[in-house]
Amino acid sequence: MTMHTPPSASPKITPFERAPEQVAFHRTELSVILSLYGRMVAAGEWRDYGISCLREVAVFSIFRRTAEMPLYRVEKRPKLRMKQGMYAVIGPNGQVLRRGQDLKAVLRVLERKLIRAVD
After folding, report:
1. What is the 3 state secondary structure string of the chain?
2. Which of 1, 42, 43, 107 has its CA 20 to 30 A from that of 20?
3. In this predicted structure, what is the pLDDT of residue 9?
């Protein structure tokens, strides 16, 4: 014999308690990323970007040309928050260039490419 609990006895889930259906970048995170992106566009290094918001990851893809594979990807994986860090910069071959908790610190690996010796 199985016991059935009536629906009114089950706890109600509020919209704030429900798991998000997709991961997205917050406005402050996009501000930091787009600031770097703007400087790299001004330097002539980057030309286009794309944003993907998926179930477990949000991705900001950076392109040199629109029709190419991404030059870099900035990923946000909230599930890795307590482990390796939820932000990562991925290179063109899929290698992780940097991972961590602080987005600005993670993006520094790309800022080094902006600094060049002046003749």
Report:
1. CCCCCCHHHCCCCCCCCCCCCCCCCCHHHHHHHHHHHHHHHHCCCCCEEEEEECCCCEEEEEECCCCCCCCEEEEECHHHCCCCCCEEEECCCCCEEEEECCHHHHHHHHHCCCCCCCC
2. 107
3. 52
Query: Listing from the earlier edge strand, what are the strands of the sheet with 48-53?
Result: 48-53, 58-63, 72-76, 87-90, 96-100
**pLDDT tens string 73-116:** 999 888 878 888 889 999 888 888 888 888 888 888 888 765 55
Cα(42)–Cα(115) distance, integer angstroms: 13
Report phi then psi at 85, rounded to 5.
115, 140
45 CB burial (10 A radius; 0-12, 13-18, 19+): middle
Using a cut of 0.85, tell me whether the model's pTM lies above it: no
Whether pLDDT at 43 is above 70: yes
